[in-house]
Amino acid sequence: MGDTTTRGSDSRCCSASRKGGLKAWFRARKAQLKSALSSTGSVKYTFQRKRQGPKARRRLLRKTSSRFDAPPDTAIEDGPIVGKAHVSTAGLRRRKNLARPRSLSALFHFCVVLLIAAAFLGRGCMVLSGAPGSNAGEPTAHGYANATHGASAEVVAECHFPYFQRYSGACVSRGRVNGQTFYYHVPRFTTGYVVLIHGAGVGRAEDWFVRINRIPMMKQLISYGFAVSSVQSVAQWTMLSRRQDLTNQDQAFWQLVAARGMDPSVPVFAVCVSRGCQYQGWMAEMLFLQGRPLAAQYFSMPWGVTPGFFLRSPPRMPPTIAAIGGTDGVPLVNTRRDLEPWVAAMRMRGIEARLFVNDEGAVDACFHTLCRMPEAGGLGVSRELVRDLTHAGVLDAAGSIVVDLPMMQGTENPSERMVAEACARVDVIRDWPATSHQGPAVDWVFQELSEVQGGHRHTSDFDHAVLDLFVKRTVYGEILREARGAKEEEG
User: Fold this and answer.
1) What percent of the chain clears pLDDT 90, i.e. is strictly above it?
2) Residues 467/220, Cβ–Cβ less than 8 Å
């Protein structure tokens, strides 16, 4: 009896084990644990914790106590919370620590997926895919068919650049694609699509519709039925943003197809200025390698295009016109030494290519093209300006520029004050703002002087040659060729 009294429940378990065997002992042990742990919740949960490993235990902890509200079988009283698991501050800390490895692992895998997705999207512009609504992998008729109409793209129908609208009769609208602004005009009958690549530095997408040396080309392109689009670069055409810039241009195209009903089968052309030509050369190569080459292109005052590009690219280039300034001294600008062998290599392969050089000239009475621009005052104002610039010492008696002008726009130069003072003495020009989207501006005077001097400035002198190159590769060109053929047969 004494042994039985001191050993208590252990003696009873041993007795049960002798009488009923091992199964009876487990029943007695289970009853004992149920009685002892009645204040901590479910015995089933307790045995699950004993049998399951750490991972299953964490899953169960998250499953039974991941919410802030109590489980259905939990009684909430003034005392401690009793349920499937005893919730305490220490328990919450323990569960948080147990769940942390899974959370960190999920975060790590999520970041990896994002990186893979970014890399895939970066390569997306390198792969020819279908147009919106087409079967994946089928080549489309249009050169800019490698991206779908982006959800981030939107069209603003109002007209921008009031002066350009009065000058050309065309309404230039604004759109947004992936956070970047672009300006465009789509004629009712579209014969081609021209991608406009602005320069770097102070260059912006709107330059094509406000600068005196560019708006004549835009007017002529639109009058021949070309749709024009200028997308603002992500980072001024750097190598790091090239793929995104190409994606933006693709999506801008499909936005215009969807919103303006533009024919997606029209040929695609490209025009660049300065550093934009570095990007355009890369773009032309990529489109060729993807089986969707440009119809033709124009390189105006190219800057920073590498020797490696000039060596490898001739077989991949479309018909090309390049123009440089005869006195262009900007560092890293491309010169005759770079461009003449490049043009010759294209010609050897049967590709139409020409190089124009804007040599230094003299300012005439019209002040290059200023007198022909509406609202600029006409020939009388331009003559007065020439007279005042001559009196100020900017021009000599023959009209040659005898002072050093800024090599690049946006850089200060002592001669600027002389030009500005001469402009201030002309009644009409005195009221012009420095720059403007609304009408003529003093900046036009500097642009025209730089063109005449043959500096690093896009010039309108070669617009007709570029227009002829582009038109020959449109439906107009086909009609003209058929008409010539018919005339020759009759002769």
Assistant:
1) 57
2) yes
